[in-house]
């Protein structure tokens, strides 16, 4: 039985929604896509310009990136929230999305992307990754806080 569905989201573009009740700790799906270097991801990004602000990149902790635009699955439509109900867990060079708390049918699935961007964060970049999650603790951006 399918547990999730992709449909238009009130937060942004398309989103992923629970079809059934998902319990805290459950593995929901894998974030699939082509494994590329950070440099390749930047070139890819420049080409596609991520026109609607949907990022399909998932940063791995070794600096490589999963590009969900190439061979990705529904996970690439998961929207960002600063108060997410799911989290990503890296297992080797694969990434799985787990529920952080119980998710009711019809609820949208969110993760905190904590995107890392090298170099200067231009106004255009900040605009592109602006967060509209409306959580009370929203930090206003999908980018990771500066270390
Ligand atoms: Zn936010």
TrEMBL record:
Q: Name one GO cellular component term.
A: chromosome
Q: Which Pfam families match?
A: SET
Question: Which residue intervals define the domain SET in the entry?
Answer: 2-114
Keyword Iron on entry = no
Against PROSITE patterns, the record matches this protein to: SET
Which Gene Ontology biological process is one annotated for this entry? Answer: methylation
UniProt cross-references to InterPro entries, sorted A to Z: SET2_Histone-Lys_MeTrsfase, SET_dom, SET_dom_sf
UniProt keyword S-adenosyl-L-methionine, yes or no: yes
An example molecular function term from Gene Ontology annotations: methyltransferase activity
Q: Where in the cell is it found?
A: Chromosome
Q: Gene3D superfamilies, from UniProt?
A: SET domain
Keywords from UniProt, A to Z, are: Chromosome, Methyltransferase, S-adenosyl-L-methionine, Transferase
Matching PANTHER family:
SET DOMAIN PROTEINS
According to UniProt, the name of this protein is: Nuclear protein SET
């Amino acid at each position: 039985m399918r547990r999730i569905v992709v449909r238009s989201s009130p937060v942004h573009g398309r989103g992923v929604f629970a079809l059934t009740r998902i319990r805290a700790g459950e593995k929901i799906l894998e974030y699939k896509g082509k494994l590329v270097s950070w440099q390749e991801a930047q070139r890819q990004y420049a080409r596609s310009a991520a026109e609607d602000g949907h990022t399909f990149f998932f940063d791995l902790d070794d600096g490589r990136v999963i590009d969900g635009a190439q061979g990705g699955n529904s996970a690439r439509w998961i929207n960002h929230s600063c108060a997410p109900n799911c989290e990503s867990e890296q297992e080797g060079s694969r990434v799985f999305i787990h529920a952080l708390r119980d998710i009711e049918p019809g609820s949208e699935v969110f993760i905190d992307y904590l995107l890392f961007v090298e170099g200067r964060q231009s106004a255009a970049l900040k605009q592109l990754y602006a967060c509209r999650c409306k959580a009370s603790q929203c930090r206003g951006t999908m980018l990771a806080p500066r270390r």
